[in-house]
Model the fold of this input.
Amino acid sequence: MEFYDYEARLNRPVKVKIPDFQTGERLNHIIFADQLTRTTLERLTRTADQIRVLAKSSEGARYLNDLLRHKRAMLYFTQPSTRTFLSFMAACQILGIACSEVRDPSTSSEAKGETPFDSMRMFSSYFDIVIMRSRIPQFAECCAYMMNDLRQTSRRSIPVVNGGAGADEHPTQALLDIYTIQRVLAFYHPRDSSHWTLFDELRERYPELRKGIDGKIFGFSGDIRRGRTIRSLATLLSQFDGVKLYFISPKHPKLALPQDFRIRLLNRGVEVREFHAFDELADGEPVIESLDCLYMTRIQREHNRPEDEEEFREIDFGKYRLNPKLVARMKPYAPILHPFPRDAEFGEIPTSIDNDPRAHYFRQARNGMWIRAALLAYLFDVDATINDYYANYTREVRDYNMSAL
Ligand code: NCD
Done:
């Protein structure tokens, strides 16, 4: 198989492709953020919440660890990755899935001329799922088509999960981003009581404030065009009601919001605005002060061409660095997120911000482990089993506590 074998399928609009990645109503391959509907998101976040509670007790952890002992996963990551790779591996470990990895194709038979497609077909012989990241754009999508063709001819076929493809998609990062946003904007506080809640306190200052994602303003700063995590997250957010997406980037066409994506968001009824500094005004208020959530990104320098280096010299990149003074002006509840890695040399988020209560990027990375475990549980069809076990488990804990009274 070669790329051109899939060309006709690759060139279709996303909406038309989506049924190809499902078996009936159920998602089988995870390739695009657009596959993740609000219903699926709710299902995954519920399971993730349950897994994180169960994993805390040895009984719950043992239960989870027994669920998928008969499954094996291949982590095929030929492009650099720390968090996506490790959190998928940890997610597999939580559910008892055995993992293997290929990270450097020069140590596999690809060094002897084997095509990545043949490698993939081999993985499907030994494993039950492939989670992959490749520098070849659309490769994960092609692999999903290959698996569909194998199934058509009654041969072994396994789910493909895209862990970051080219510049366009990173659907599972968007999942953990949205999971984090939902948790923060639920405004629960460990000290909430019948006398005081964080939410009530915030409402005194922001009477219009509502819980949840609907109606909120999301700011994205940095390398908007080349950041695949931004595309995937903005796609998920566009499903919510009345969200506003503010993109803050240099004016350069290689870094700013691309026109096709802007149109796609507008067609979904999202309010899209572009800015070039945190201090520009949005409805009379500086952008930085108006945001309900700020998603920072690094400038993806590894994609620079020599002519870009030349042109980028004109840009004042300092405008896309956060500092404690800017953070102090943000809404007190607005989370600061970053898909990581942050670029220490560039300094889009200096470490002096890490202890601010709004800095959620480390929690965000940990959430990746829980939501990816939920995704794997869903793909292997054990999430409903977890939901049932959890209901019994919490009932037992409650009964025990009641009897101790
Ligand atoms: C991102 C990626 O690889 O797209 N990292 C990640 O998966 N958390 C972001 C980046 O590389 O800047």
In short: The chain has a mean pLDDT of 95. The chain has 16 helices and 13 strands. The chain has two domains: 3-169+367-384, 171-189+197-365.
